[in-house]
Structure to design on (540 residues):
């Protein structure tokens, strides 16, 4: 339908005719996401005309139709000027029942009164429009702050138990967008409007958490049906909003309690299954991202569940959720063509920090990832075990992935260089050792317990024959100089020296050595100071 014709008719149309006109436009453009640039001015005028209609007292059916039109138009960020105004945002906020820009106490509960199906559709369409407008317009984001849209959203969080699915979903999505696009709002959301606590309550209700201890949720019934798709959708939006709000934390007793409560809720979520494996993995990914934001001391909540009980080998701690994280990590490693930086490094970072600060977590993960060595005839990066997959990542092309995988294995080895080399070989570990200044051996700075991990008899018998560079026992190779005379050997040695000398003088290569502190330096500087023997025990 021609836009000029629509605009002309809207000028004189009554409410019924307006609804009929816009219904036709909506049907024709419901799947339109790219627009004719030559008609930008006309679409902008249509936005203004629709807002004018919405500003009047009209029936819910007409409001819904107008909002559907506005939602379609808001897909084009170039025509949002009429909407991205105080008046436009207040109209949408009012229709979404957010009480934007209005003064009132914290007990505003705009969704509590009964709504007809038509009225609820108006609220949903208004929330969808706000999501599009806020996402596509930086001006609208600023206006949202000025009219306290976030306050209205937090007021709606009080009514989580009365939500219908789409109202809850788009309320949470709008809160996520505001907290993502406007970092300056996060402080107010946390301190003034208690959004972290409210979002935690949303998760509790959505995930049907039943508390059996201070920070312990009841174990999910293994016979229960998977979490419904709608509940999963709302939970993921709440997790994303919480992630934004916990990117930085000021600490304090109240925050500590809230963070531990969130950790317990996330433990419950990690033990749940959804209707599809893909959605389960997505929900677990959001939970892991949020756990990375929480203080590391809160991770004890993941394994300290007295009512459910634990394993005697690990001081009575429950390692079920740690196993879920290990399985998630391996699944992400095995995912072909995946973005390791976004998909894998968060879980590696979480497991690394958990292992660094919690002895039982480290001991359990090491038993799964770095079991005592037996067969050392195969290079450590070859094979299908988790250890082999992680060692391969130590030479990944992405620097972030490479460093994160290496750091994870290093922490599992209690930051002992000798212990790390035993499992990976010097060649795979060289990048980490250079970055840490540990080429001469030694340990990292973190202090670990003195629990023992004795080597297997197979490893002890093979140890003298292991190539420290490759980390495995190599098949004997023929000696290329065995049949040379002494003169031939001297000639080849001099020839090799001359080649190195030439490359060095031309600055093609630069011979390097290792200082006593484990850092690299030009060879002439290191020859004066032989490295100290500061290697530590490789016990675990």
């Amino acid at each position: 339908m021609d836009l000029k014709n629509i605009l002309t008719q809207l000028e004189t149309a009554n409410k019924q005719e307006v609804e009929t006109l816009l219904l036709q436009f909506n049907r024709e453009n419901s799947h339109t996401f790219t627009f004719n640039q030559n008609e930008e001015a006309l679409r902008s005028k249509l936005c203004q005309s629709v807002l004018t209609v919405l500003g009047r007292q009209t029936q819910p059916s007409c409001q819904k139709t107008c909002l559907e039109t506005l939602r379609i138009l808001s897909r084009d960020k170039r025509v949002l000027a009429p909407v991205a105004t105080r008046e436009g945002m207040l109209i949408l906020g009012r229709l979404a029942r957010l009480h934007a820009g209005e003064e009132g106490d914290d007990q505003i509960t705009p969704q509590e009164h009964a709504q007809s199906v038509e009225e609820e559709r108006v609220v949903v369409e208004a929330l969808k429009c706000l999501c599009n407008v806020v996402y596509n317009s930086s001006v609208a984001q600023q206006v949202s702050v000025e009219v306290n849209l976030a306050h209205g959203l937090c007021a709606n969080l009080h009514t989580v138990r009365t939500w219908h699915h789409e109202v809850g979903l788009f309320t949470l999505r709008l809160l996520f967008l505001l907290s993502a696009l406007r970092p300056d709002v996060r402080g107010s959301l946390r301190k003034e409007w208690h959004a972290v606590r409210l979002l935690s309550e949303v998760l509790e209700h959505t995930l049907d958490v039943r508390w059996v201890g201070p920070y312990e949720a009841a174990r999910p019934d293994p016979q229960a049906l998977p979490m419904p798709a709608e509940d999963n959708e709302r939970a993921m939006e709440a997790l994303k909003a919480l992630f934004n709000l916990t990117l930085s934390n000021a600490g304090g007793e109240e925050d500590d309690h809230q963070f531990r409560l969130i950790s317990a809720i996330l433990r419950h979520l990690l033990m749940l299954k959804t209707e599809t494996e893909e959605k389960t993995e997505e929900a677990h990914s959001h939970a892991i991202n949020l756990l990375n934001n929480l203080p590391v001391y809160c991770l004890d909540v993941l394994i300290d569940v007295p009512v459910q009980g634990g394993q005697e080998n690990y001081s009575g701690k429950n390692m079920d959720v740690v196993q879920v994280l290990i399985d998630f990590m391996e699944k992400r490693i095995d995912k072909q063509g995946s973005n390791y930086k976004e998909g894998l490094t968060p879980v590696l970072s979480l497991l690394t920090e958990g292992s660094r600060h919690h002895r039982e977590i480290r001991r359990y993960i090491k038993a799964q990832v770095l079991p005592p060595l037996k067969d050392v005839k195969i290079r450590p990066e070859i094979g299908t075990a988790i250890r082999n997959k992680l060692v391969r990542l130590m030479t990944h092309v992405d620097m972030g992935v490479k460093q994160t995988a290496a750091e994870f294995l290093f922490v599992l080895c209690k930051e002992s260089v000798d212990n790390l080399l035993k499992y990976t070989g010097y060649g795979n570990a060289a990048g980490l050792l250079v970055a840490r200044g540990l080429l001469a051996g030694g340990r990292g700075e973190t202090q670990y317990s003195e629990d023992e991990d004795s080597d297997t008899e197979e490893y002890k018998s093979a140890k003298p024959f292991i190539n420290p560079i490759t980390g495995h026992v190599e098949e004997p190779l023929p000696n290329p100089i065995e049949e040379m005379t002494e003169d031939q050997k001297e000639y080849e040695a001099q020839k090799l020296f001359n080649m190195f000398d030439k490359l060095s003088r031309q600055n093609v290569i630069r011979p390097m050595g290792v200082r006593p502190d484990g850092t690299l330096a030009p060879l002439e500087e290191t020859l004066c100071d032989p490295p100290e023997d500061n290697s530590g025990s490789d016990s675990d």
